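Reviewers asked in the last cycle whether our approach scales beyond single polypeptides. To address this, we selected a multi-component target totalling 778 residues and predicted its structure end to end. The input consisted of the following lines:
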Amino acid sequence: MTDPVNTGADLSRLRELNSLTIVRALREQPPATVTELAKVTGLSRPAVDVIAQELVTGGWATIVEPGASSTVGRPARRYRFRATAGYVLGVDVGGHKVLALLADLDGNVVHTARTAVAAEADPKKRLAALDRVLAACLRETGKSTSDVWALTVGVTGPVDATGKTSLFTPLPGWTDVDLAKHLSDRFTCPVIVENDCKLGALAERWRGAARDADDIVFLQGGMRNGAGLIIDGVLRRGYGGAAGEIGALKAVRWLEAPSHLQRCPGVPETVGPDEAAAWVFNAARDGNRDARTAVRRYVKDLAIGTAALVLTLDPQIVVYGGGFSRSADLVIDPLRQELEKLVLRVPEVRASTLGADGVGLGALRLALNEIDRLLFTAGLSAPVAPVRT
Amino acid sequence: MTDPVNTGADLSRLRELNSLTIVRALREQPPATVTELAKVTGLSRPAVDVIAQELVTGGWATIVEPGASSTVGRPARRYRFRATAGYVLGVDVGGHKVLALLADLDGNVVHTARTAVAAEADPKKRLAALDRVLAACLRETGKSTSDVWALTVGVTGPVDATGKTSLFTPLPGWTDVDLAKHLSDRFTCPVIVENDCKLGALAERWRGAARDADDIVFLQGGMRNGAGLIIDGVLRRGYGGAAGEIGALKAVRWLEAPSHLQRCPGVPETVGPDEAAAWVFNAARDGNRDARTAVRRYVKDLAIGTAALVLTLDPQIVVYGGGFSRSADLVIDPLRQELEKLVLRVPEVRASTLGADGVGLGALRLALNEIDRLLFTAGLSAPVAPVRT
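The resulting structure, written as structure tokens, was:
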């Protein structure tokens, strides 16, 4: 032991950390030269040079050879994270549909599959639809389950530590479904089940209306209002996975809010209960007086539950998403005006930009987070799908 | 450059990190031997030996020589963090009092000073009381302002980024007070102003009823209810410092709750408004029927706002603190029963164990956090009071 401060074990760990630092830097930016990587990571150029070549050999990175260039001298080669080393699946199991997105490790969506499911479908039928959609995603992209590094499924209702919605779910018979086990029988990679509103919140921060914020209340507007919370940049689940369930408190009127739309006078009999809200929003846009009253009452009640979230958390931004967000043009301004009457500090109120893909995109993001976690804590020694432990 | 991975700069940084690791390890445990420190930190024994001696020379640590021992062989010397290298001040500026605690860098309270202030006192009088209490703390311990490494003051109302309670405060004329500036004219160390309920939450996790939890809703029970939130182990302030202000929402009835106590029939005329609640709690404990009804109504309304916090955050623990927590025996069980009717997952409900010192202790903790932050990010090169930047 020649240097008492710096043992062999310390050096080996340092080298591993430096490799991970470069992988992370590559993931977060366009193809970069050794000089650029040295600047971003604070490591020396010679160190980065050695590590980058090791990462190419190991399958973590590819070389982008310089093309024709107008600059004088030989342009430097660039390194790119090999995003196609693996794939992630993000799935939205909703009341009326199952939607699956397949994306590479940079989060680029390479395939989307979707199938309709009846609202009253029993768990067996809904799980069969899920299996069909996942199989279609793999088949149509020529991938197999071993290409999938992580898989996240969003469901309605608070999700506990075992991946079950045991406290509450509106999906028929779903309380007893062990979704994590069902998927673990089909995939060897990490499988995560998460609440749909929480995934919606993640998606808005990743690729939606809240990319610039760390403190976000995401509202899932629909026949059941829900919420997902990002605080100091991190999705918060609560101790038992039930954060954001303010809708259960009668006093804040979220249970009541959507019924103003459903009970609006003048909705034609031919319009089913699932489409009534859309009809009312359209009629309100056309100036129908009853419809405008119904929307006003909806927003007034929506604002009370939203105010409870805002007063509790003091977020920078409230994002209005979910199925009703197609009609955000009728909701955003009145919602802000109601909040001005109810809260101490009024946050920005924005409309979701992701529409029906929000939950699936959030599921992708959570799957990618899991890969990052494995990469930067447990360590992934080679670029192959991690096996669930 | 003989080793491309491990430059001189990397090594110097590694040595500094190792020193800080030892300082942190020393702060978090009783006096420790080199062998024990090596085990805790994962560093080699020779490395720890060198660093520990450097820390003694530098004034960060002291040596505890082994006393008479029954074990065979020479017992090893131990190292202790030199907690008296500096001090922190934690102050509670309340409606009726100013309380200041002086503690060493381990958080051991070495002196307490307190003075009564009239509820209707104007800012000038309240600031004069603050100055007197701080001066007393230093004078009676033989310390000067240069011994103070950080200072935190708790006040009522949401505190913004400038340390002002500009949105709301019940203290007369206090909205315009620049407390941070007032203190910065007297102290050169970092000065932090924070909301009293947030400090109460910190204190319960540090030395109170919630030491075992990372997800905590702290209720400040009093003539104004307040809340402080710890989520995933960290105090959350909100984007503008106004997190926890659920009491402002009429629908959740916190504004109403304490008035049931104040309006209770039978409170003698000789009992002033500030003491009415204490009288009612005592009468209820003695079986007075009106008083029991008033307490029941108080808890029922308290529970609705608490349910809004619990449904939003899904905490592990709710701690009932503040002035009314002296009567927690009458509140905890009924509050839990009300929550069982209102929320999806019922958290544990516990009484504060800190009483009137909670806010001051939380202020100490926040001051110590600031020192840790400087120590482990900016780096404190020598054990002397940091100068505010």
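The longest helix of chain A spans residues 289-313. We regard this as preliminary and will revisit it once experimental data from Aim 1 are available.
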